[in-house]
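Notes on consecutive records. When two proteins share a document, each keeps its own sequence and its own token line. Never mix them. Below: protein one.
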Amino acid sequence: MVHYSFKDKAVLVTGASGGLGSALVKILADRGARLIVTSRSEKAIQELIQRLPETTQVKYFTADLSVKGEAEKLARNAISAFGVVDCLFNNAGLGYFALMEETSDENIRYLFEINTFSPLALIRILVPHMKQRRSGRIVNIVSAAGRVPIPSVGVYGGSKSALAVMANTMRLELEPFGIDIINVYPGTIDSSFEENALREKNRSGFCPTERCGEPKLRIAQQVVTAAEGKAGEVWLEREGKRLAVGSLIWPKLVDRRIRRLRDKVVKNEPMKQRRWRLLQVESAIACNLKCVMCPWKEVRDKAANRGIMDQKVWDAVKQHLPEVASLDLTGGGEPLLQPNLTEWVADGKAAGCETGFLTNGLLLTEKITLNLLASGLDWICVSMDGASKETYERIRIGSDFDRVCENVARIARMRSGPAPKIMINFVLMRMNFHEAEDMIRLAARLGADQVNFKQCEVIRGEHGKGYGLFASEETKEIRRLSKLLSRARKLGRTLNIETTAFPFVPTELPVCAQDPRDSVFVRFDGSVAPCINLAIGGPTSFFGTEVIMPTIHYGRLPQQDLLELFETVTCKFYKQRFQERVQAYEKTYMDALTGGSHSGLDKLRDKASKAMPEAPQGCLVCHYLYDI
């Protein structure tokens, strides 16, 4: 139902010669509005006016809204044009593509003048005249970027957020005077927005839809329809609203959704998505240690070719690296036993992959470290499950605590910048939990950047069994452990050490971090699987219950091509099933939130989980799917 009519109303439209602005002007002219249009280009405005119906009443003014005082001058001119301004469309706006650390004070102020201060100045001058008539309407074109932390558009989002918040406050303040304020979130529009945007370091814009946004005329029609409705906020793009609500209620979900975009933006890569987000390559299942909790002992003993990946397998992988975003050269063994590891790291970097691996650190000699640094390694993670020599060497049998510490410290000393990022994996067990805080202190002393607190979650037969601290439900002991772990992570923040950790009790996820939709695992023998857990099946323990983990392979390299294997029936099943689970989970959750549901988060999560189709057989008994 139409709440407001533009017929014979005096309507001021800023940014009128732009893509959305010109479409708005045309539609408003068709509605019979008396138009006041403005742009910084007189030629562009005149060309726009020539395309309007001859019966249109229209006045135009040139105004550069990046200049302080221009908005006030424009507002006074607009009032004089028809003696009144019934409605204002704050449409003028400018983009800015830059990481926050790259932004300049000059560009920030320039952008805020156009996107925030000038629209606010127009409102503040026009409102007293509207209050006298107890009638008026203000329509602000804002953005979901003002509600969602989208990498490289932080300043733009901030400028639109500031306008939206102030306008919403004025909406409540001016409601008694008959003045309606509407904030419209249009989503992505197929216009020249990105072309005209400011940018640092030649950062390209990005378009989140295949069509580079909705047609501007269609969006303009929806904006005018929203402007004819009730005061408040109107979202034209449902996904933008979901992300905005999620960023407040469930920020981790939103972070996961935009992480890939973040990674591309930070590296200033083209926005074209690579086929594989992650390619995990088991460069070796052979190992130089005998760790107490290792699940791969029997598999390693039976491995062909001494458990070392053959160059022919790597060659079959290498040709597809330009389609890989992240390359992890880790599997069930020690990558540094692979004689070609440094060359393979260099291959990954040459193809534009973020590349790294997990090691026990014992073989990180000075020569190998120099070669790895020269190869461009992005990250290295060292397994250290004890902060003291006694605890560490009781777990990592055959290693040398002091040597590993020196090897880690050497990397930190020799790197010339933040890369490679140095991480430490600390597998939590009863025999080492008391050293969690000590590990944070040790990491700080060694020059590491991050400590990952992991659960001992992978079990094959008796190997790895009984070491896990997690359980199917919360207990008094788990609450105690959680509290101790929180203290360690708090210490990490104090000492500037990043930390990650997993829960002690299960929460079923739509898909695990491995995410077979866009990742694969390549065993040392060339077998291709969804992940390492499914690559090597066998008897396992799932929250205390004895089960069998199936072995799932798509095929084998180099006999088959990796791209061919990614399109096999089995692979398609995993990709499709997890896509269905993610869609069902997010839709149920976000629909409840955007629909005004007052259910608790636990109930919403439970409802979303029940809406998902069942996970594939092996994943049903994998602790990873339950966030352990």
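Protein two starts on the next line and is unrelated to protein one.
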Amino acid sequence: MKIALGQINPTVGDFSGNAAKIVAFARQAKAADAGLVLFPELSVCGYPPRDLVERPSFVARNREITEQIAKETAGIAVICGLVTPAHSSTGKSVMNSAALLQEGKIAFVQSKMLLPTYDVFDEMRNFAPASAQELFPFCGNRMALTICEDAWNDKQFWPKRLYTVDPVEALIQAGGNFVLNISASPFWIGKRELRRDMLASIARQHKVPVVMVNQVGGNDSLVFDGSSLVLNRDGQVIAQGKSFAEDLIYFDSQQLTGEMHEQIAGDDASVYSALVLGTRDYMHKCGFQKAIVGLSGGIDSALTAVIAANAVGPENVIGVGMPGPYSSQGSIDDARALANNLGIRFELLSINPAYEAYRQILQPVFAGRKEDVTEENIQSRARGMLLMSLSNKFGAIVLSTGNKSELGVGYCTLYGDMVGGLAVISDVPKTLVYRLSEYVNSRRAVIPQATIEKPPSAELRPDQKDSDSLPPYDVLDAVLEDYVEESHCAERIAGDRGIDLETVRRVIRMVDRAEYKRQQAAPGLKISPKAFGYGRRFPIAAKSEI
């Protein structure tokens, strides 16, 4: 039988829109003579729904729409993800489930057994786990229907397992000979390769075909890459979907041959695609059509503007240069040149009058005190005020431009350069910012070379450079990777990396002290295994002894 994978981009809570996608893809698959089409985890309601599942009306609408989909897709079997009521002693009212829709009705339901609670996942908060799993017959096979994490506990692949049971193994032992997995597996660097290798291990170990359809698109901080896969009994990929785009992929369940759609290769290209998709979906799913980016002439704001223009079109992006008393003419020229290269609207608004007004207002209170970081922050906050004023007037979202290195150590100003509705590159370390900028220019030279080559500077005091306050970015990013993503101690980082121990300790102290800033920051797009945000939960009022 020809089977299709419907790799769609759902929106959380958009039942009508999600149903329309499912029905359209199912009808297209039926027209191509497919007998079954699979859709991602919780595709009916969108993933992750989080606490929305606590609303009875949400759960009821979810069921109603699923029954409607079943009626509108008669003639082809459909598997889709939905929320179902739970009858559980855990006190949770719903389960994360998959339904087989046949002949206009819900014919079979299987719920998720393994509920992740690490990193960005907190499914035990919302769902009850399945107490049992069953097979269902289809096209001459005994199908093992699993949901995302259910396939992530293979003892042959993971040196340390998170759960005591392996749903895939149990279903195979019960006679299953074909594994289906519907997923909402977010992207991070290296995730696609890990996912493929893990699924290949299951296929080889149990000598069964493995099918995984994955969600695509951005929902809040998470970006889902799609990259759906079908593997034969030897673990070889025989069909695959595109990365970072909706897709419909076909394969033959008996011959185990299928379509191989081209995926984006390379970390830099993949990260860039993830940021573009995440920005586009965050804006559009939140109801924004236009974006505002403060252009300093530096590399961070340049990369953010390029991503925005690629995401929603240059006609929908406004670049704002906001020179202050210490801004160089070169930075102003670079900001204007970038805007011209991108074809975005450019406005130049000096903060000097506002800065001087604030200083005059504060002068009686500050009398006798030397100028310090206070005056630097006034400049940054004046810029933030201008950006948010433009946002209010034009109904456009401000995209903040801080990178992960700065956010990590607090080298940013609350209510200043941190203002905005989305922090596009807040999970991109500075060294990766440079790589992505080179990647952008390799496609079309839009970022001025001077922006890439000049020493990074906030330009908030005379001759200021980032290196006045921070270690070199290659050193800083190495420490942040080990401390934030791996939770290594200072001594281990210093030893493994060959970095001075006191430098490592200084960076760690800066990271810990800046927690209060990060918890007030705009949501950012996750592209690393451990991003700042709700996947990294640390107290603010805590003492760090290192």
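For the record: The first helix runs from residue 15 to 31.
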